Amino acid sequence: MALCVAAALTASTVTAPSASARSSQSSLLTGQPADANSSVIDASSVAAAFSSLRSDIHPVALPALVISALMGGLLGYLSFERFAFQGSSRLGSSTVDLDSTFPDPDAPPAEFVSLEHVRDNLYTLTVYSPSMQRNITNDLVLPAGGTDNTTPRPTFYLLGGAGGGGWTGEGGAPDFFRDKLINVVTPRGAIGSQQADWAQEDPKLGLYKWTTYLTKELPPLIDATFHGTGNDAIAGMSMSGGPAMHIATMDDRFKVAGSYSSCPSTTGVLGQAFASSTVRFYGADPANMWGSSADPAWAAHSPILNLEDMRDLKLFAAASRGVPHETDQEVKDSPAPLLVVDEQFNYTCTRYFVDEAREAGLSIDFYEFDEGTHNWGLFRRQLRETWKTIGPALGVE
């Protein structure tokens, strides 16, 4: 995924919007209207950036802190919010059926196929997805007693990154949840998917309807088979963090939603470039997901542009400033310096999202780590810390 960030940063040269487009927007730092004379980086953002520089800050963390501070005002808006069709009469027509990128309200639940005991409290659950027309494998962590435990409990849908993997190995989920009365489910195979319902089948990745799977198909089966209460949480790391928050708005069962080292945006020059790169990295075409880069579907699924939909949720977000930590682990095909850049990009995007969410009056906890690059060593620590939000929201100790 570090390569995806490099691609996103490469796309960071942009043209400022027209004066008419800017005049209708507010400075995200000052709250004042941005007029035709607004600069991409406003003076107050620069002041905030320099005021963040303290002698006790690790040098590696400086880029993340300075860039995050500079994201106040028009620069942040261009990076993570402004959509391609805004301010232009030539762009913005729909190239896909928007309804096809959202779950069918009448979608049937998944069908049970098999349950295999792996070790201790870890199981492999295989179900059939009607929307994707294939079997889906899920990692399932059950509370003490395993399948014999019939106590009603909530479920935590814990999503993996762009590679489609899970939290049961280096993520440490089985150990952490061993003494907690909760089901933990991680679907496998959502490679480069944005956990989305794609408008069209992709020649490389196939038929993707992951949002339908996570809202209409899998939860009813989990509740019926593993004594779920329908009082649930959802969160994701890297590629899946923003999508987890967005998915939570589509089903009232989700009471808390969160992001681990992710970018909760699919719009703006950086947000859209990052989302697109997670798809292209695996040989797929983003147009099969949400249409052309100017299609309104991209805005419809961008968490930063749909904050109002999250008003009834308890939210959390975690990210690191990217200083290497003793728990950091090597990532195949990703040099250590690139993991620093990757995490710092996600930190910048996360901070922007948190600031906007708080400005909108949403309930969000921000877990800001000084140390940790974009790898499982950091994600594992984030999971443990964010339980301070998840547990109380679900009534689980």
UniProtKB/TrEMBL annotation:
InterPro entries in the cross-refs: AB_hydrolase_fold, Esterase-like, Mycobacterial_A85_antigen
Keywords of the record: Hydrolase, Signal
UniProt key word Signal: yes
GO molecular function: acyltransferase activity, transferring groups other than amino-acyl groups; hydrolase activity
Superkingdom of origin organism: Bacteria
Signal sequence coordinates: 1-21
UniProt key word Mitochondrion: no
Pfam family, one: Esterase
Protein name: S-formylglutathione hydrolase FrmB
